[in-house]
Specification:
- The protein has a domain of 74 residues.
- Helices cover 54% and strands 0% of the residues.
- α1 packs across α7 and α3 packs antiparallel against α4.
- The longest helix has 26 residues.
- It is globular, with a radius of gyration of 19 Å.
- It starts with a helix and ends in an 8-residue tail after the last helix.
- The structure holds iron/sulfur cluster (2 copies).
Length: 128
Amino acid sequence: MVTEAEYWDALQSRICAHCSTGDGSGGCALSNGEECPLKKHLPLIIEAVNSVYSKSIGPYEEQLRTRVCGVCSSQSAEGNCRLRAEAKCALDRYFPLIVHAIEDTQLKKRLHLGSQSSHGSRIPSTSK
Ligand code: SF4
Ligand code: SF4
């Protein structure tokens, strides 16, 4: 199972390193007091992405809106979000890349664990 810290490492190198509000090397350059929704809602984002398996981004976006935006303090009761409307939410802006990073991290871990278990497996001896 991929840990939250492992997901965050992957997101930092793939998203934060290229984010327009990043420092260019994986750090965040948001000013004091501002918190990025990607960091703030990470467990819910992981849940949302892992609840879908689709080649299309639409079903992932539906989960994002329901599970994350639905509880985010930046969204109004009517479902509007000023940060989203002004492309100031990094989670919304980079969402397709975020989905890809989360799924890719999971796949790599599975392949890694698979290769570990096949190296460690013992073929029963048939000799007497
Ligand atoms: S705003 Fe969010 S995505 Fe961008 S660098 Fe900061 S933590 Fe990363
Ligand atoms: S789009 Fe708006 S409501 Fe959704 S996570 Fe970003 S800031 Fe929160």
